[in-house]
Amino acid sequence: MGLQTKMAWQPEDNGLQQILQLLKESQSPDNATQRNVQQKLEELNKYPDFNNYLIFVLTKLKTEDDPTRSLSGLILKNNVRAHFEKFPSEVTTFIKQECLNNIGDPSPLIRATIGILVTTIVAKGELRNWQELLPSLCNSLDSDDYNVCEGAFGALQKICEDNAEDLDNDSTRPLNILIPKFLQFFKHNSPKIRSHAIACVNQFIISRTQALMVHIDSFIENLFFLAADEDTDVRKNVCRALVMLVEVRMDRLIPQINNIVEYMMCRTQDDDDSVALEACEFWLSLAEQPICKEVLGSHIDRLIPVLVKGMKYSEIDIILLKGDVEEDDMVPDKESDIKPRFHKSKSHTQKHTDGDADGELSDDGYDDDDSLSDWNLTSDWNLRKCSAAALDVLANVFRDDILPVLLPILKETLFHNSWEIKESGILVLGAIAEGCMTGMIPHLPELIPYLISCLGDKKALVRSITCWTLSRYAHWVVGQPHEQYLKPLMEELLKRVLDANKRVQEAACSAFATLEEEACTELVPYLGFILETLVFAFNKYQHKNLLILYDAIGTLADSVGHHLNKQEYVNMLMPPLIEKWNVLKDEDKDLFPLLECLSSVATALQSGFLPYCEPVYRRCVSLVEQTLNQNFRHSYGVLQANQTQPDSVDPPDKDFMIVALDLLSGLAEGLEHHIDSLVANSNILKLLYQCMQDPMPEVRQSSFALLGDLTKACFQHVKPCIGEFMPILAQNLNPEFISVCNNATWSIGEISVKMGNEMQPYITLVIGPLVDIINRPNTPKTLLENTAITIGRLGLVCPPEVAPMLQQFIRQWCSSLRNIRDNEEKDSAFRGVCQMINVNPGGVIQDFIFFCDAVASWSQPKADLKEMFYKILHGFKNQVGEENWTKFSDQFPQPLRERLAVQYGV
């Protein structure tokens, strides 16, 4: 195939036949044939006009069947994606021209393929390199030929979906023409065209595109006109638009809101499930609006039954879920069933702080909708799950006010003869647990035993949903007499952990992990029984549930802590864990959950983990080293490849390194000084130096956690590296990465305690950034506490260096630490502040009331610390004189005044 220079390109017959033969072969199911085709395609890509042949088959060769022509277009699309920059300009021009000339092909499949090809070219060359595209498509919309209009709309819909932002930012303002144009087609006589028109406009709602906002009233009016449309796709797009408008232009919907609510209630019961699902999203969107209660108040008694009805499994759900298969625990899992797991890096908070330590640190955007995963769904999102989510959020808006509507429904559904209805009732009970807890409490003494009995139901789907619903009431159960509820619940849940159905095993394991978190040390009396069951599950579980089992064991270790360190428990738990550890290869992703689990177990077992620690330690160090080496090779390889084929060198998966660093942290925290010899005989500190400089925040976060833990456990090995480590720690005092900054701050505090006055050379490096952090608005509580403690500790070891800055941080410092319980970190930080006040008493004068308040937050300071407080308070009182002190202390709130008078005699 030579590149021809004639004006109108024509294929050579021989070349054309060759390509048609290839297209036929590529439809063969045989793998070897497929591979052969791939190879030939790669070879043909070397000929510049190969792509001309492909577009020719797609647009001109009407004698061929549609699937072959479409396939030619899809191969061309892949070539555009991979090599478009290398196409000769005449080939590019020919392809673009052919697309526009054939946008109205009589075949819907060919039109759709051309639409996909157009969008792919736009994605490569952006809109500005194809000036005639939008005007041409826009003109085609007015064609009398339906195929031309529909083909152009199909292409425009794809362009709007993929390039909404570019269209909005384009200096030629194409949307000023396109959006009014789309609106004209809302009343077109073809449902397909109406559907395209709404779908195009819908792409610009969430971004509040100006060109749409000026026509918003006309848009909404047109939507109402289509409300009763008979076409499924039109109804679906109308619902989708209304859901987004709730978020963006609620003000414009208010005048019609009662009609919209009625309409959406009706659509939530649409015969077509996909329409019902779009409509059901409306309630989730509305629940987030402050006006929700007011808007829905008069409709809620009719809406609740609609949502409950949507929570029942449909026939198709049950088929997809193999709901009639009761026993499948012997059937191996398909790898495709196992979702990738993401490791959450270790975040260091000062131990024993109040409040939710990690709550503020989830940089991973943890989505709370996970609380609704009733896990009985193979499809990710459907009407059942959306209805349950909607009921959950509305229960949080209306609280107990919805119970008069719900309780009669629950009475009817929970005890129904049909298992599908009974199952949906149990799901309802779980969905309202958070919002209606107060109102449900009087009913729980009757409901919990009933639910525990449902754990033995003969239908696996009933057993699994019951596990989830019970986990939503775990907090209440743990607060009651154990004999009555906790013990029977635990016994039945553990039976379900060993259920013959895999879905039930999974639900029971997850529910049990929730129970562990709620009950914590209350589980200690039952530890033997719990461990027997969990260890037995090791040999019973297939691949997917094994990963959830690791999580349940790790959570148990976190919940009961050192109570796990009994020889009989260690003997039960460790052999199966270590066996799995030995079987897994270094590149196996299953190492993640196992490493996380072992990290919790090592921290809990403390010295009980000693017999197992050496091989675990060595492997972790080796995983870190391997990842660093692969990373180096990858960076080097990419440089070598000179960016021509960066895809050919895969970057290493740094999760292996992160999880290994976190397990090393767990070992250091659990084993304390026992880790000394392992650290001495390894190059971990050299590796840590590299990890601390990794561009990936999660790697740095885990590195600083490990550095702090090693500092506490075996500082003599860390000390020689401090000169190299401190500048890196200082660079990471950047609140843009909250968790990284948090761990670096904590680590500096731990190092300063060990360094004593040898910390002096490094004070200027770190004190400035720390003072900036403590004075920043909206700094998360955990980071504030960590920063305050670290500043206090620096002042403890080097008071002359830190004291001059006292006035810059003392008020924020006192406010941050007044709410945390007495503990070692708080103790060392307050000693530091007392030292600094002795050096620079003037620094505290303006904010002395805050210092008094912080002192009063101690319930039982150690005697010598109390003495320090006493001296500072009395020193201040003597300095200002009795009369001024009285005026000053009269400003105190009553409890503070009394407390200081009783404890310190001021």
Walk me through what this model shows.
By secondary structure, the chain is mainly alpha-helical. Helix content is 68%, strand content 0%. It is built from 49 helices and no strands. The protein is globular and about 100 Å long.
Separation of the first and last Cα atoms: 99 Å
- In total, how many beta strands? 0
Shape: globular
- The proportion of residues in beta strands is under 5%
Largest sheet: none
Give the overall average pLDDT.
89
Residues in helices, as a percent range: 55-70%
Number of helices: 49
Radius of gyration: 33 Å
Low-confidence sequence ranges: 1-6, 350-379, 642-648
Brief summary of the model shown:
By secondary structure, this protein is an all-alpha fold. The chain is built from 49 helices and no strands. α29 (527-540) packs antiparallel against α30 (543-560).
